[in-house]
Write a structure and sequence with these properties.
The protein has 84 residues and is mainly alpha-helical. 69% of the residues lie in helices and 0% in strands. It is elongated, with a radius of gyration of 26 Å.
Length: 84
């Protein structure tokens, strides 16, 4: 794998070649996990967000649609507040 020995400055922070090693190791991990499993990052994110989006839509969509429909009806009728 990647050795990070000798890549720290006296304050204990990673020096540029250490950052490159970390970046390279991360890319290798991502390549192995995502490509070998036939999944893309987009697929993983979409699958993680799907239940959260569904829950938000279930909670908020009826209210949003009602508000927009009432606003459109009021715009067409020309009497703000007439539908409430």
């Amino acid at each position: 794998m990647f050795a990070l020995m000798g890549t720290h400055d006296p304050e204990g922070q990673l020096m540029p070649n250490g950052n490159n090693a970390v970046h390279s190791a991360w890319n290798e991990l991502a390549q192995n996990v995502l490509v070998e499993n036939g999944r893309t990052l987009q697929y993983l994110v979409r699958e993680m967000l799907r239940p959260m989006l569904k829950s938000w839509l279930d909670d908020n969509l009826p209210t949003v649609v009602e508000r927009l429909v009432l606003a459109e009806i009021e715009r067409i009728v020309g009497k703000p507040g007439a539908m409430r």
